Amino acid sequence: MADPPRENRVSRAGDDLAFAGAARQAALIREKRVSPVELVTTYLERIDRFDGRLRAFITICRENALAEAARAEAEAAKGAWRGPLHGIPFAVKDQVDTAGVLTTSGSALLRANVPGADSTVVERLKSAGAILLGKLNLTEFALGGTIRFPYGQPRNPWNPEHDPGSSSSGSGIAAAAGLCSMTLGEDTGGSVRSPASYCGAVGLRPTWGRVSRHGCFPAAWSMDQIGPLTRTVEDAALVLGIIAGYDPRDPLTSRSAVPDYRAALTGGAKGLRIGIIAELVAGADTQAEVRSAVRDAARGLAGLGASVEDISLPLIPFSGAVFMALCDSEAAGRHKRWLSERADEYDHGTRRRLVTAGLIPAAAVHRAALARALIREQVLAALAKHDLLLAPTSPHPAPAIASHTAPVTSKEDAAARFFGRRSYTTPASLAGVPAISVPCGFTAGGLPIGLQLIGRPFAESTILSAAHAWEETAGITNRRPALSAAGGAL
Amino acid sequence: MADLAPEDVRRLAASLSLPLTGDDAAEIAHRLNAFLDALAALDALPLEQVEPWPTRHERIA
Q1: What is the ipTM of this complex?
Q2: What is the pTM for the complete model shown?
Q3: Backbone angles phi, psi at A422, to 5 degrees
Q4: How far is A385 from chain B (nearest CA, A)?
């Protein structure tokens, strides 16, 4: 690429380039103010400096990413643009297949698994010009509850003693810590939204069927959905527009046309009817700082012209247990053979979760499926009256890692740990509707708080538009974690 | 319903060829009792009025 005038180039010094976001970086590359090699090198240097402790990455595709960047640079010099993500480095949760690159699903059982082909989402990002930088850490098999991570303990960039959220842990860390331009996660019961909330990133769970799951190790077939984890809402819109759409290799994808999500960002929040889910905002589990930040965000959206009111969805508190009964029993069936033959290769937290699910009576699982239908009806009925539902993404900020590793001491302890928090994100999963987590504040201790907006089926544009309007007003996504060279916050 | 004890969990797991090691049985008993309580609470809901279809088929394919 011919060098543009020096004064027009964007310096790699400082963090500005790393945190610029994919949409802005793509524009800088088009303007030849940044080269793909500069961008990839920036992130590789940051990974070397910070990821030793954060452990966002399982695999780093260093040589291949640099070679692809050089190729993208040569193509750009000739005016040959592959697509809207030309030269943009991305990373994906290691649950998602990548041709010729180790894909572990976060488990020692798959420590030698190298797929022969890309998943649909990776194929689409590459076709848009993006460059695979690496594969991202996760809880084992995307189930949550891992005690000992076989590829390193992932840590929250705002405080490395705290959890980054699960199961797309590395995706949240890498997006928030500026370790790549954008990432993909997979959300079954909140696995994109929870890391987004804990790490201060933007995480979008699309409508079930909006994005192909081909090449993604399944957790629960009727709820699995791949989505972006990014620094900005605009980046989430950009990425969704590329990965969404019908895929004959996933027959459950929708044939509905994919809108221009970025164009919809200008829609704002004016005139939207927003229902605040009282059970989640005012619930006893919701910490005061979270409640306050979410109420402030609701007032902010009202200030932007939305009509906001409290509503009650009384079945919501059942969601966590219903979700886990359905998801875990399916996982127990899928893992039956490996559990019998290779039990000692599982993390013991995962193994206990799967064995527990294998002992739940089938009749109870069926009743959970019936309860799911009731919960879905209640969510959809609320969305018939409101454009969006609003709630905290989590009742609390990122908990200390040590709180996860202590043994379960009673059934009350188990219910609080496994069902309570999940009742915040699983209603959207059970209903198959889209939801986003966007930062809405910080605790006094400096941990991010996430605001969740839930929308109607295939109404991602409405969610993104409102979230973008809020983001522009609040300016919270401009805040960056102060990382030390050892990898944690200063 | 009375809570299941670790010994109950050991018997059930053995009959289903599910692996247990160390102190698994005690913790799994807590987890399983939590599930059984939570799912028993669903009996208060009008479950007979719905069918368990999980997705929005009208928008798929």
Answers
A1: 0.94
A2: 0.96
A3: -70, -20
A4: 18
